[in-house]
């Protein structure tokens, strides 16, 4: 191969190589941004943790998430109970509902 052919080959491949490189950098920036936004830990080039900086920070985050999870589970249980009552009221006949209401009124008097 002579030098003119090599120059022509590099001239043809240059834009494609540059486009792949730019696409790779954009993908890396986008991935890092998404990891930061959603709270995932970031790693350095050798696998060391960059964020969160300390293990204590990640422990605190886990504690907060666990507390929030417990609160949401309790709220979900309450909502399920209320929904079961609403389903029972909707599916019961009007006669049995009237009878239960009258029984409750009789208990309070």
Description:
The protein is mainly alpha-helical and 109 residues long. The longest helix is centred in the last third of the chain and has 37 residues, at 55-91. Helices cover 80% and strands 5% of the residues.
Write the layout of secondary structure elements.
Elements: H1 3-37, E1 42-43, E2 49-51, H2 55-91, H3 94-108
Antiparallel strand pairs: 1-2
How much strand content do the residues show? under 5%
Largest sheet composition: 2 strands, antiparallel
Low-confidence stretches: none
Count every beta strand, where a strand is a DSSP E run of 2 or more residues.
2
Structural class: mainly alpha
Strand line-up in the sheet with most strands: 1-2
Q: What sort of overall outline do the alpha carbons produce when their principal axes are compared?
A: elongated
Order of helices and strands: HEEHH
Provide the helix percentage.
over 70%
Count of DSSP H/I helices:
3
> Whole-number average pLDDT?
84
Rounded radius of gyration (Å): 32 Å
- Give the termini separation: 107 Å
């Amino acid at each position: 191969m002579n030098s003119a052919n090599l120059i022509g080959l590099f001239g043809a491949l240059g834009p494609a190589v540059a486009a792949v490189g730019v696409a790779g950098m954009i993908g890396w920036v986008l991935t890092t941004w998404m990891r930061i936004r959603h709270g995932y830990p970031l790693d350095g080039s050798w696998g060391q943790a960059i964020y969160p900086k300390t293990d204590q920070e990640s422990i605190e985050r886990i504690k907060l998430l666990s507390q929030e999870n417990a609160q949401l589970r309790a709220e979900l249980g309450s909502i399920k109970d209320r929904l079961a009552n609403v389903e029972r009221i909707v599916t019961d006949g009007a006669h049995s509902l009237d009878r239960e209401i009258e029984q409750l009124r009789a208990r309070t008097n």
